[in-house]
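#onboarding

Welcome to the new folks! Below is a worked example of what a typical request in this channel looks like: someone posts a single protein sequence, and someone else replies with the predicted structure as tokens. Don't worry about understanding the tokens yet, we'll cover that in week two.

Example request:
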Amino acid sequence: MNKLAIVCFTAMLFFSAAPWADTVDINHDNAAKLALHLKGIGKTKAKAIIAYRKKHGAFKTINELLKVKGIGKKTLAANRKKISLGTTKQTSEPYIIEFPAQD
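Example response:
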């Protein structure tokens, strides 16, 4: 693969992932990430989300966030597009792209 193709492929991967860069997984992400990416959610509310998750298990719906003290309809509406429920199993394996050897 020539250098131009590698650069184009890398750019494509970078720009295609950009819209999801600030998405948070309320079932797996830590309080720091929640506070950083969610509007109106500071350290205290982020910790409350984690505490709720530990006590009640994984969130089944995004609307379940309304049960967390301090999170209301306006906060949820402002963040709905940034929130995901993730998967039932989180892996720590990195995503690796292998390129064929150049001749």
